[in-house]
Amino acid sequence: MDEKTIKPTKKEHILVCLSSAPSNPKIIHTAAAMAKAFNATFSALYVKTPASESMTTEDAERLLANIRFAETNGASIVTVCGYDIAFQIAEYARLSGVTKIVIGRTVIGKRKIIGKPTLPEKLISLAPNVDIHIIPDSDAVIAKGKKKLFEKPHFVKILKELAVSTALLLLSTLLGYLFSSLGFTEANIVTTYMLGVLLTAILTKSKICWVLSSVASVLVFNFLFTEPRFSFLAYGSGYPVTFVIMLAASLIIGGTTEKLKTRERQATQTAYRTKILFDAN
Questions:
Q1: Given a cut of 70, is residue 45 above it in pLDDT?
Q2: pTM value?
Q3: Measuring CA to CA, how many Å separate 104 from each of 21, 29, 30, 91?
């Protein structure tokens, strides 16, 4: 057979998923052994989500130890930010030519009767051409789910943020009175409350502050600026629609601002970690 007719085989590229789980070193060791056996390129990927910011000190130290362990086993460390872990893994696998993905049972969790698909199921649908290897570990602790909407921040800190939210609500109300005395329409007053919600989302860190600010803005507007005044009743037939739209818009503004703040923090942290990796290299 002519040597020119022989097509070179595709080089294997093995990707292991990093986490703060105690069993992650076992997953990394297995992936490293596979990479050595196949003479493959070896990469380790950590997907940083908004829930990662609530990681305990113990978990953060364990994650750093797992990253270092992957480095000592010859892995190229990659950190990406996103909300969908499966999508980020599949997208990186597609761009970097990954042929095998190694994950642990700790990042899978149990499938509910009615619920979202598990991580392997998502990866199979998003990366059908990649082999997915699941490493079982009976001693592993199932990773916690998504970060809750209402956390329990420090008592003093939440009081300060609530004070800021209240001050912004009062300022919006004073501007509303000013606009009302000048003969401005109710739409201008609604805009001042939306501006207050936006500033609350920017100046505070707790989600509960801008959520409460959104609800309070609708109630205060109804109480002070709609007929009959100083009552939660509303004579106009269009007021219920106005209240619903005002609340929805306020929540969307607050949520969008929160996401932008989270992405800004993630971009800064990723840049810092990239600098550390370059310095280490």
A1: yes
A2: 0.51
A3: 9, 12, 10, 19
Could you give the CA distance from residue 194 to residue 191 in angstroms, rounded to a whole number? 5
Please name the residue that has the structure tokens 């009767």: 113
Nearest to 245 by CA among 214, 201, 271: 214
Phi/psi of residue 149, each to 5°? -65, -45
Provide the token pair at 166: 């209240």
pLDDT digits (tens, 9 = 90+) for 193-240: 988 888 888 888 778 888 888 889 899 998 988 888 888 887 767 778
Residues of the chain with CATH 3.40.50.620: 10-147
pLDDT at 137: 61
Mean pLDDT computed over every residue of the chain: 80
Exposed (0-12), middle (13-18) or buried (19+): which is 83, by Cβ within 10 Å?
middle
Let me know if 59 is exposed, middle or buried by CB neighbors in 10 A (0-12, 13-18, 19+).
middle
What fold does the segment set 10-147 form as a domain?
Rossmann fold (3.40.50)
